[in-house]
Amino acid sequence: MKALFGLCLLMLISPLTEVQAQSDSQNSPYEFKNGDPSGIGKWYKGREISHVMGYQGMAWLERSDREQEEETSQLLKNMNLQPTDAVADIGAGSGYHVFKIAPKVSEGVVYAVDIQPEMLEAMKEKNEKAKQDHIQFIKGSEQKANLPENSVDKILMVDVYHEFAYPVEMLASMKTALKADGKIYLIEYRAEDPTVPIKRLHKMSEAQAVKEFRANGFQLIENIDNLPWQHCMVFGVE
């Protein structure tokens, strides 16, 4: 439990510069104003975007009690992974989910996407032992996942979407990468539940997620309500 509260200490302090804010505010879907110390001062659809968790928090991602706290094995069951699936983990971090997914899609591919070189390097080092040759490591950017077009059956985002500085652009990038019947699995701590021990900006409500995804051409297929603290929201292209 203490580890969860410790998450707030691991945020990268990277506020927007005045020049960035002025540039982005022109013809932009985003608002810029003061807000929570955990946020970047940039808002989308009434939600303040949070700071990104830096690679310094890697140990928290790999904590021994994560399965107990989050039931990650149940999450993978929710995804109904097939051997030939192409799966992208966006914001893959240290690869906690990547290396659990890879054996389940042995005839497919796993795209491990992260914006931080240190995270990508950590995953590559782990794969020297795991030897999963169907994992592709991709450096994303703030605005693009850099996935091949029309290539992905399932996209997984675990507690990362709320950190995207450019959610509109990222959702457009994912929409391009998904196959016609592709799905996004959005995992976020439930903002509706005050007992979930996570800071406010690192939670999302179903209503807020639906508002943002619908504005970008996605519809909620279902919200699988079987994880202890997190939503498992499944979105498809409208």
TrEMBL record:
Residues 85-206 form the Methyltransferase domain. InterPro entries: Methyltranfer_dom, SAM-dependent_MTases_sf. It is an enzyme of class 2 (transferase). It holds the Pfam family Methyltransf_31. It comes from Psychroflexus salinarum. One of its GO terms (biological process) is methylation. This is Class I SAM-dependent methyltransferase. The keyword Iron-sulfur does not apply. Keywords: Methyltransferase, Signal, Transferase. It comes from the Bacteria. Residues 1-21 form the signal peptide. Its EC number is 2.1.1.-. SUPFAM superfamilies: S-adenosyl-L-methionine-dependent methyltransferases. The keyword Endoplasmic reticulum does not apply. One of its GO terms (molecular function) is methyltransferase activity.
